[in-house]
Each structure stands twice: as C-alpha cells, then as structure tokens.
Structures
1.
Amino acid sequence: MSIVSAETGREHRITLPTLRRRKRRGEKIAMLTAYDFTFAQIFDTAGIDLLLVGDSLGNVVQGHDTTLPVTLEEVLYHTALVSRAAHRALVVADMPFGSYQVSPEDAVRNAIRCVKEGGAQAVKLEGGVVVLETIRRIVAAEIPVMGHVGLTPQAIHRMGGHRVQGRTEKGRAKVMADARAVEEAGAFAVVLEGMPAELASEVTASLSIPTIGIGAGGGCDGQVLVMHDLLGLSEWTPSFVKQYANLGALASQAARRFAEDVAEAKFPGDEHVYS
Ligand code: KIV
C-alpha cells in the first residue's frame, strides 16, 4: 500500500522500515541504477523503490573497462543530480574503489559526504567479512549501509574477471559468510551479484534483511538492473538481463532522421520558426 502526503500529494519516501516490512510480507523490491536528473525523475515516478547511483557509471557513462577509476567526487556529482529528482525512491550512493578501503575513519568521512553533498539516504559498499568493521562504523554514524557480496566488480583483479561466484563448496561458504557478516554489521539490505540462483535463495532465507539480486535468480527479495541494460542502451548485455526497451535503436534512428532533414533542408519547417 502506498501512503500519499496530504501536503505534497506525493507518495512518501521509501524508508528502511518500509523495506523491512516488504521482506516480512514477501513483497518484492525494485531497484535501478540512475546517474542523472532526467532518468531519476522517470524512474522515481514510475515507482522504482531504490535508485542506486552505481559506480557502474565508470562503464556506462564514462566508457571505462572497469569501475576502478571512478572517484568519490564523481559519485557525489551524480548522486546530487539523482537526489534532486527522487521524491519517493530511496537514493543509495555507491562508494567507489578507494573511498572505504583505507580505514574505517576514512570510510565514515566519505559516507558522510555522500549524505551531506550528494543528498543520498544511504551508501553501498562491496565486500563482506573484510568490511564488517567499516559497515559497523558507518552505521554507527547514522548512515544506512547496503552491502554487496558475491561478484564484486571492484575485486575484478582478485576474481580474474567478472566471474560468477559461489560455484564451489568453498565459494558458497564465502558468499554465505560475507552475507551474514554484512547483516551482523548492521546493513539494511545486501546486493547479491553473480551467483547460482539456489545459493542466492539460501542466503535470502537465512537473512532477516532484504537481498537485492542481480544475476542471482528470482529467489531474492528484490532485483536490480543497470538502467542502460534495461533500456537497451548498452552495446552488450549479460545473459541474466531482460531488456525492456530498445532506446539505443530509437535514439540512433532519431539522430539519423535529424541529420537527413538538415542535409535536405527539411528542418526547421515553417512551424519551427519564430515570426
Ligand atoms: O554499480 C552498480 O551499478 C552496482 C549494481 C550492479 C548493483 O553495483
């Protein structure tokens, strides 16, 4: 059930208690990445519960091969654009590589910037057991944290590529231990990325916080996709993606028609000219 504010006529923002309730009631949670005002506004009014300003911006916005070059300043910039548009969705700023690994103190300082300067309601960071203390410290500073375990793109060099995790006994145990550590540290939710569906279901059943899956099957409490994959704006999409639109083809067609019209002096027409 959505609750509308008498003052603004808008639905109230999704909160941590809302998400906990959703898990208890078995109501699924939808999260999308967003990096700018325009798309954040579209997704917010379309009823997306969480907007993640993902460090995937390194790939889909900046054209890098990995997420590693993304800086905190860049995440803050994009988070501020998204926060300005999001009235209902909870905005999560993804802490980029280097912004939480040095020390818990440094991580808390950077998480505070995500809230103060980016306007985020929460932050996300990758890892499990090794970031337990860091999550605990950020949560103690009253900043909600979303964990991220399994395939963690910032660990690309350790993993040897974007590889599905948890396929061996040892791997399964690591994913489970990481997810439990994230919950124990006080995170409000955890992303489960790139793992067998059966393992993700098992993790979901063993945690009291919501799990948000990407390439982790339908047994999670929610799902997240990178917006460029959802909308057909990526050159290549992984097999777990369902593409809901082909905006890339539409944009290309529109640009081509515009170029033709300009070349043939068909644009601007009389109706597009000031008198
Ligand atoms: O950066 C990102 O977009 C993410 C999602 C894939 C979960 O971390």
2.
Amino acid sequence: MIDIHSHILPGIDDGAQTVEDAINMAKLAVEEGITKIIATPHHQNGKYTNKKVDIIERVSKLNCTLQKENIPLEVLPGQETRIYGEIIEDLDKGDILSLNNTNYLFIELPSGHIPRYTEQLLFDIQLKGFTPIIVHPERNSGVMENPEKLLDLVKKGALTQVTAGSITGYFGKKIKKLSMQLIEANLTHFISSDAHNITTRSFHIRESIIEVNKEFGNQAVYYFQENAELLINGQSIFKQEPSNLKRKKIFGFF
Ligand code: FE
C-alpha cells in the first residue's frame, strides 16, 4: 500500500523530530501494510520553508538509514504547500516540490476558511501543467459550512485527499461524517495518513480501510489504493462524477 501524505522526515517540521522518531514511524508504517510513503513536509510561508533541493537530499538520507535498519519502506519526495499568493512564482523558481516529481501538487488550505483567491490559484497551477490536490478538506471549516465550494473546485479540476484518521473518527464525529459524505459524493480521490508521529497523530490506515470497506465496499478500497499507485507513477488517476453532499435530515427538517 502507498501512503501519499506523511511528516516522516526528521527535524524539519512538526512531524518526526529525530532520526529515531522517523525510524519508529517507518516501522509502524510497515506494520500498517505500507510499502511506499511520500514524505510531505510543510511548506508554510514563514514558519517552515523546506525547499525542494533540501527535501530531496533528506529523503535519500532517510532511505539509506531505513536500508541499514532493514526496514522495508521506500520514502519518496514530496511537499505539503500551504496556499499563498506567490506559489506560481516559487514553482517557477523551483522551490516547490511536487509529489514524487510527478505533476501532482499538494495544496493545503488554512483550516478556518477557503481564501477568495483559491479558485484562480488552482486554475493557474493547472495552467502550469500541475494537478492540485487539496489536502484534508474535511478538516476545513469553510468546506464544512459550504461543501458546494469544494464541489466547484473539484469540477474545475482539483483533486482532494482525505486523512485516514478523519475516517476513523480520530478528529471527531463531525469530521468523520463529512469524510464519509465526501467519499459518497465522489469528492475525494485519495486516503492517506498525514502521520506526524506514532502517538497523537499516527497512521490509522488499516482502521480507515476497514471503515471504508464497511460503508462502501471493497471497490472503494481498491479505488483509493489504485489511485495512490497511479499518482506516484505520474499517471492519470480514476475519477467519478462528483456531486453535492447528500444531506440527511437534521432535527426533523431540511
Ligand atoms: Fe500534512
């Protein structure tokens, strides 16, 4: 299985702090059935810089360490880029790293809202030949309040990634429900861990697969696993026609 979102690279963001942390995360990833994992350290304007060249170098270092430790996990390069106005300029400068050097790019929205310029920026990213993947939309309150905005972005070519822990209920019932609704409405294309450590922000991949299988069947599990594989190979992923969320009756009306 392939995990496309993780903070396993040590000492550069709020994920693994030491090489030992990274090794422990790698061991747990293998236990969860993960064979390849994309390291996606934060690129958050001002807070964490993590430029492309540094990430690539650190990924190869970590792979050497894992080989020495006999841990059968391959780390691939990536980045989680918080949305900001100059992404295009920095893409041109070579500071922004796509996922495993493909044309897929992670974009993180701020947790509180969807910035007004999002649609234009995602369009510009696509004009540059990249496909933006919005990470964990289920944890964005703008999406929670107005899922139609996400539908609009997906219709205009953006992809999305739901976090495994959201599906298992780790982030609460509301986020779990929204995650399931996003899957049901074909508004998400990937499930991945976004693991930061092995305690408070762990993988939850196995559990999430059980949940997805229970709710949507084996086909859905296969769909997400296949898409992760297509992504790392730079191929076109599977998409189904997205729709609005099916809203269930709330308090007897709606
Ligand atoms: Fe992340």
3.
Amino acid sequence: MPSSSASSPPSLLIIGTGGTIAGVAPSAGSTAGYQAGALPIGQILDSVPGLSALVPEGRLATEQVFSIPSEQMSGAHWLQLAGRLRAWLSGDEAPDAIVITHGTDTLEETAFFLSLVLPATRPVLLTGAMRPASALSADGPGNLYDACRFALAARQAGIGGVFVSFGGRVLRADAVYKQHANRTDAFAQRFGQPVAWLEVDRPCWQPALAAGGLQGQFATLALAHTAASAEGDAASMTLPPVGIVPQHVDADPAMVAWLRSRGCQGLVLAGTGVGTMPAPMRAALAQARQAGCLVVRASRVPEGYVGRNTEARPEDGDDALDFIASGWLDARKARILLQLCLAAKMGNAREIQALFERCSP
Ligand code: SIN
C-alpha cells in the first residue's frame, strides 16, 4: 500500500521489494544465514538519517509492492511492479524521482526489464545491499542514501530512465551485471561507462552516457495482455517463455528440444567465446528456428561482443540460419529483450537484430 504524507506530488517515491537490504541476521556481527526481505521499507528508511535533508517536508512517499529474496523473482512479480510504476508515472501525482530497493541476485534483470517497459520520463534507480540491514557493516543505508541523491540530481538535470545505483556509482540497465558474489562493490558494467558517480558529495551525471540503449522501447506495450497470453505448462510464466541453453563441454543438445516441449517460443544460447557451439548444438538450434522458434546467440563470457556471422563456413552463419547475435547483451538480458519482442508480436529476426544492436557502448 502506498504511504505518503504528501499534499503535493511526492518529490521522491521509494518502493520496497525485499532483498538483503531488508534482511535480518541472528546477530549484528553476522552477514550470513539471514532472512532476506524481512523488514518493510518504512523500517529500512529509519536507518538512513540524512534522507529528510534531501526531500522537502512531507514529500517522501513509500510503497511496499512485495517483499521477497530476489532469487524468487518471476515474470509475475515484474508485471506487478511495472504496473505500479506505470500507474505512478502516468498519474497527476508523478513523483520527481523513484528509488526501488531490490535483492542483488536478480537486480540486473529487473532493472533491464523495467528500462524497456517504463516511459523514460523520470529517473528510476534500483539499489540493494550485500550485507543485511542488521549487520554492523551494513552497506544498505549508504547505497539507499546515494540512490536517493543520484535520483533527485538526475531529475534536476532532466535525465529519465531506469538505472542501477550501487557502491557510489550509477550503472546502465542494459550493461550492468553482478560481478562478485560477496564483495560490497558487487556490480559492474559489461560494456560502456558508468553514467554517474560521486565527486566528494556531489552526484555527477553524464547525460550523453545516460541516453544510450533501449530505454522505454516497450513503454506502451500492454503488459496485462502479455500476462494473459501464457499457455499450458508455462502457466506460471507471465511473459512469453524464452529459455537459456548453456553451452559447456559435453553440453546436451537435447536440451533444445526439451525447452521447446516446455513451450519456449525463443531460445538464447549462452555460448562459448563469441557465441560458439559444436555442430550438434547448432543443428538442434537450426531445427528449432525452422519450427518458428527465435534463436539468439549470446556468450557465457562476462564481457565482450557477439557479432553476426563469425563462423568460417557461410552455411553455419547467422544469415544462413536466421539466428540473432546478442551483440553486447549477455544471455540473461538477451532473454528479456526477446521475451518483450515476442510479447510485441515481433517475429522477424532481422528487425529484432536491429534492436539488439542499439544496446552498445
Ligand atoms: C537477494 O537477492 O534477495 C539476496 C541477495 C542480496 O540481496 O544480496
């Protein structure tokens, strides 16, 4: 439920979704064995004393949309969150800026999804923490405070769109990934430069860098409709089902047929190197493509670019097989973009390829 003491539109809206930033461990010295998503957003704010100085009296609003450890995130949660955000952004009461607290484990995926489906009219910054709220060394209060000041500074600079604020930097939603499972500087960009950072206490945005990518590309797509289109065994999914096929030594190409049997309308290969795969995997994916399933070649490597037609034999290339190359996007981000392309009834691989190419440094 929204909570606001605002008589005029909120200057800042903070939305809670759970995660370690809302986590409670058995003791203050412990950073493990905690319950993520235990604290409501109002209680998290109590640990950020400087916040009242950032936001004019009575112009801070909060809303707890759900409270989960983010490994439990699903398409249904995304649609619920996007629905609330679209409602806030389209009404007369649109806040100047929005901050979302989120678990770090799937934060990069939620950020990219929201960047595609929300209008880029206001700054929306996701943040989280690597240590629970109860820890002596908690990083959540600092990250939340930074996200709020970055968000308000973005609005002042006329910058809108979805970004991730973590460890004193703001990162692009299409490029951000969790680079470390334990450290507090847990996030980096797969490509391009951070779009904002702190110079001593001053948030410095680079508007040109913040303008890149596919922000708002599917802002008018009817998300309720996509929820209704899930079928059969994929009933628990709320967006068109797209699976990731991991390539590794001795990877079983039968996985392609299995994912198809589960209703996948698109497949993303997390390939070796520049999205490479052995011949049996290529044959299985080519067969899926011939049956109408869209196929994206991405890479399992944390950084780098997957270009088109990198195979020696033209008959193995993307042109011949009608595959899409993921470009700078990793497999997880490629999966989300392909889901939304399918939801928007895009079936032409070349048109989808053009969208992938817009995510670049
Ligand atoms: C989660 O993603 O909810 C747990 C891990 C974290 O937030 O760091």
4.
Amino acid sequence: MSRTCVASAPGKVILLGEHWVVSGSYGLAASISLRASVECKEISCSRPEVRIASSLGGVIIDIRKPEKCSGPLCGLGYAAKHLVGILGIEPLCVQCRVASHIPVGAGLGSSAAVAVAFSAAYAGVHGVELDKSLINEAAYAAEEYNHGRPSGIDNTVASYGGLVLYKRGLGVKPLESRVELDALIVNTRIQRSTRRAVEYFQRNLSILEDIREDLIRLVDKLVLRGVELLEKGAIERFGRIMFLSHGLLNGMGVSIPELDWIVHTASAHGAYGAKLTGAGMGGSAIVVGDENALSAVEKECKKRGFEVYRVRLGVEGVKLKCK
Ligand code: PMV
C-alpha cells in the first residue's frame, strides 16, 4: 500500500548579527512558529517524477533531470535527486502539496522551510525516516538552486528548530539549549533587495577603516552574550542588546524611518527589545516583550498599516507523520 507523509518545518528570524556576519562576526537566528508543510504521496506514472502543487502554482520535475525545470519550486527536484543518491533508493513517482504560513520574500526563510518539509516527506514516502542532518543536507541542495551559495542558516533553523549560531568559516551550529519566547514580527511591507542592502552596509563599513575591526569584535561579543542571556532566561537584558544592535545597524545606514518607528514604539510601550531583522532597508522588525507590551505594540503597528505576526521563537524543527 502506498504511504502518505506530511512534514512541517518552521521559518526563521535573525535575532542578532545580520550584516556583520558578512564581515566575519557571529550571527544568531531562531525558528519561528510560522510553518510550511508538505504532504507527499506515491502515485503511478511512467517516470520518477515529483509533481508539486502550491499556491504559487504547480510544477512537474523529472528528478533524474531537475535542471530541465524552471521556476521557484524546481529546487525541490534537486533535494529529491540528492536523497535518491545518498539513500540509494529506487525513486517513486510522488505527488506533493505545499501549504505555508510563512510570508514569501520577507527574509523569514520560507523557501528553506518548504525544502526541509519536502525532503522529510519525500523520504518518508520511500519508507525512510531521515535524521535531521540528512534532511538539512537535501534541503541545502534546493536552497542552492534558489539562492546561489546561501549560508545554510535558513535550512539549518528549519531542520533543527531552536537557536542557531553561525559564523563564516566556522559554519552553522544548532544550539542544544531549548529556549522559547514570545515575539512580534512586524512587516513594513516595504520591498527590499538583500544584495543592495549588503552592498550599502559594506560600503559604509569600509569608510570606517581602522575601527571596522573593533565594531566586528563588539558585535561578536554582543551575539555571544545574547546567547548566554537567552539561555539564562534574562530576556530583559537580551532585549537591551537588541536595541543596541538596531542602533548599530541604523548607524550603518540599513534602517529606514518605518523600522525606526517600530523600534521606538516598542521602547515607548515597555518592550524588552526591538530591532530590524534581516537585510533591513524595508522588510521586518522583531519585538520581544511581556504580554502587555506586545499587545500594545501590535495595536499601534496595525493602526499604522503594518502586518503583524505573533510568534513563538525557538520552536521545534522539522516534524514528520506518515500513514
Ligand atoms: O533577511 P535575510 O534572510 O535576507 O537576511 C540577510 C542577512 C544578511 O546578513 C544581511 C546577509 C547575509 O547573507 O548574511
């Protein structure tokens, strides 16, 4: 009898260190309780295909030749090909349905969450329950198709969940501690280009010449101290590091008045911390605080026309169920 498998995986948010990581500091990311899910089942057809249906449209990928496919979902064919290769399995013809609560193009790791959920469900249909490191590897193959040479942070967070620390050269490391906390993600709905923001930040950083290294070392320290504080449950002090990090990013030119407004509003309502998250110059901010502060900030931000997501940070990574 053919199996049906459903897997889900979380999106991500960058908590500390964005932009500075490009120059060698640590970065810290966390999973969020917005998830993507993929349901796959075996169907009969003549070739080993993956047929994907999603709200972005559908695609049929010949997994022996994924390069023939074009479109945002084609990366999943590379993940399938990777899995077939490492597991040495006879590929089945598989039909999958993607459903995601993670906004697309908002820097929240939606493509990686889909790739991770797909990899788990695809292997599940073949009767294999993969460990997280193999799921992560397969999802990275899909991410490479979508983003060139990504850091691997998004797929690692989607696979392992929780907190993930990363640094160029040292790689990506999921932390063992389980820390969960409530936050708001506030999307300004202003489109931004990560590449342009990175270029602008790097240009501004290079102007600083000799203090450049001091700043990178400072951010390194802030990120590591941030991890310590989170692990101790000292959220108020962690929040102070968030405000400070926003100030540094603002000073480097990647904030915009809308993001600054969110951070000021958060501060005025007693939130523990707030900052832009990801590339900046648009996109989203993240706010951490107690229930009263989060409700007040949520109300103000909605009044201003921003999109607000209430999330839990640090939630579980990929989950799989088959029947
Ligand atoms: O929001 P995102 O996923 O586009 O994050 C970009 C993070 C940067 O540090 C600005 C760039 C990078 O490659 O790390």
